Amino acid sequence: MTHTSLRFPDGFLWGASTAAHQIEGNNVNSDWWRKEHDPEAGISEPSLDACDSYHRWEQDMDLLARLGFTDYRFSVEWARIEPAPGAFSRAEIAHYRRMVDGALARGLRPMVTLHHFTVPQWFEDLGGWTADGAVELFARYVENCAPIIADGVRHVCTINEPNMIAVMAGLAKRGEQGFPPAGLPFPDLETTEAVIAAHHAAVKVVRAVNADIQVGWTIANQVYQALPGAEEVTAAYRRPREDVFIEAARGDDFIGVQSYTRTKVGQDGPVTAPEDAERTLTQWEYYPAAVGEALRHTADVIGRDMPLIVTENGIATDDDTRRIDYYTGALAAVASAVEDGLDVHGYLAWSALDNYEWGSYTPTFGLIAVDPVTFERTPKPSAEWLGGLGRTRLLPRTAS
């Protein structure tokens, strides 16, 4: 029986997120496009047309606005904007500016991410983030994004999940493939330093473009839970994989919190979830409360004065009733954090669309289904439900 409702604060961001490479299609100048077509990379399927959102972004925004969402986080693609070193495409910059204008025209506040995992092939060939001059090259790219973000964009994310970039770089340097059964591989420390420097440079550029823009970056929070007696082990494990990136956000306008599940840690490191635990299509443990714990841990590390935005949270499932249940639990955890005084400014679900999940289309995170042949968009019941909450900002609370 419902006995109270919590109203999220006025101006609270209520939306969904996407990433360019995962939805646009035919991102042929990116490092990932090359990797997807390299037999030695072991990628199960290439992105190809993805959701064809490069051409159908208006349909996507129309649906989100109709459903009741007020915010849309999308990324711009560096490999399109700068397909060759120093060669900036005016047409592509204009394309992404049209997306910003299109969002505003539909009543959607655009949150623009400048880097979401992919880089131009030429940048990778130079050595990527740890190459000489890499930070300056990224800053130059951000400067050239000025026409996209200068007007009407309130929030800009510089780099998405830099801790995952460093983890993937560590795997590559060690010649390893795949993740352990629980936890994350050790991140490459040189890459860690490089992406932090790139972020700080990008923040300066964005503020020079428009001082009113709120700028930050987003961290993949693994919700590390210490088993009894493993508190110090957990803290040492978490620090290079997460906390150094949270601490690097000091002085930013906000920090993006992204979480999906939890990771228990014992004396010997991460512990695999029990065999009988419910798992999602990504084989992660079903754990809706993760986002609340991620918000609290982020605030503990960086301080309660830092504005927090949930920039990704969701579940890969082909059972939409479980998606609604997951979001119900997740939003209750966010509401609890707000009630406890955390400065949470918004919640953006992952993902707006069933999309390309870095090697496979099988994990379906989307609120909106996409036909792989016709590209027809079909909102799921979860989209109607979550968008409906966006109209009222009221979350029913159930008596225990």
Q: Which architecture per CATH?
A: Alpha-Beta Barrel
Biggest pleated-sheet summary: 8 strands, parallel, barrel
H/I helix tally: 14
Q: Please identify which CATH superfamily we are dealing with.
A: Glycosidases
Unreliable spans: none
Oligomer: single chain
Query: Class by helix and strand content?
Result: alpha/beta
Taking all Cα atoms into account, the compactness measure Rg is 20 Å
Helix content: 40-55%
Order of helices and strands: EEHHHEHHEHHHEHHEEHEEEHEHEEEHE
Instruction: Report how far apart the termini are.
Output: 9 Å
Look at the structure and give the mean pLDDT: 96
The first-level CATH class name: Alpha Beta
Shape call: globular
Number of domains: 1
Outline of the structure:
The protein is an alpha/beta fold and 400 residues long. The protein is built from 14 helices and 15 strands.
Topology (elements, then pairings):
Elements lengths: L1 E6 L5 E5 L2 H4 L7 H6 L16 H15 L3 E5 L2 H4 L8 H16 L3 E5 L7 H6 L7 H11 L1 H4 L5 E6 L1 H13 L14 H21 L4 E7 L3 E3 L4 H17 L7 E4 L4 E4 L2 E3 L18 H13 L5 E5 L7 H20 L4 E7 L17 E3 L6 E3 L1 H12 L1 E5 L2
Parallel strand pairs: 2-3, 2-12, 3-4, 4-5, 5-6, 6-8, 7-9, 8-11, 11-12
Antiparallel strand pairs: 1-15, 9-10, 13-14
